[in-house]
Design brief:
The chain is 30% helix and 13% strand. The mean pLDDT is 92. The radius of gyration is 22 Å and the shape is globular. It folds into 3 domains: 128 residues, Rossmann fold, CATH 3.40.50; 39 residues, no CATH class; 115 residues, no CATH class. It has 326 residues and is an alpha/beta fold. The chain has a 5-stranded parallel β-sheet, with helices on both faces. A two-stranded antiparallel ribbon has the order 4-8. Bound molecules: iron/sulfur cluster (2 copies). One iron/sulfur cluster binds next to helix 8.
Amino acid sequence: MSNDKPKVAFYWCASCGGCEEAVVDLAEDILKVTSAVDIVFWPVALDFKRKDVEAMEDGSIAVSFINGAVRLSEQEEMVKLLRKKSGLVVAFGSCSHLGGIPGLANFWNKQTIFDYAYLKSPSTNNPDKIVPLEKSEVDGKELELPEFYDTVYSLDQVIDVDYYLPGCAPPKDLIVNAVNAILEGKLPPKGAVLSPNKSLCDECDRNESKPEKFTMTEIKRPWEVELDPEKCFLAQGVICMGPATRGGCGQRCITANMPCRGCFGPSDQVFDQGAKFLSAMASIIETNDEKQIDKLIETIVDPAGTFYRFSLPTSILRRKKMEATK
Ligand code: SF4
Ligand code: SF4
């Protein structure tokens, strides 16, 4: 590989692995990407080690794409190392951008999570009540595990981030556009989310059937309704986060006849995705009767998890206040 190609790194923090799949799913486009750059670090696919990154000159990696939220001390150390070694850092995917699904753990803390996962869940068989320890002794040798934090963080709560590629996972065309923009030096101002700054509703094929005002007595979940594939989900009494969510995903869920869950996060004008959705709902529901509105809200299963499914750590809520375990 030629040394004058831009160096690129990929790293994976707290995530499901879908963002790594999204890179592999670039199919023939990944060949174009790999022929234009030198991939110098990609733990999921290539055998480079942390010491290889440590040995690189500061700023020598042109761009690091980092997916996943930050939940462990090891992840914090690695993203800080990559920040030092990289010209640009791109938060890749919802978890890195907003905290994502792992960020929903901010409704609990380390103690409550460990208690449930290792001791109390119905599928746990742990008669000796063994829970992971940061330091333990095995065959006379000390074994060290990363620290598990009480709180899940978005990437920009830990390091400076240059750009954000939204989505769970980011779609292929946005990834290819971002890589091309980086290679050609045609990037927008620092801090930009690399997707159109408009709401999903603005580009949704069902927008014409979105009600201006309507009467809703009950919120239903998608599986409880025989969904009309052409009609706005809100008009069918099903929550769709489109009004509070940035466009650019290609309406992936909508075309599969599933409502938007909000993985692209809010557009630039929106301060808080969940609050924006609630205000959008309030403006279209045809009643001022607070009791009726309260009754309607009561029919939503897990409201906080619904409105902040991908954005809890970066929302106005951030996390449930609990006593730290450290
Ligand atoms: S609420 Fe959902 S279905 Fe309705 S227009 Fe917006 S994105 Fe489309
Ligand atoms: S429709 Fe919503 S949840 Fe689905 S990919 Fe698009 S932004 Fe994400």
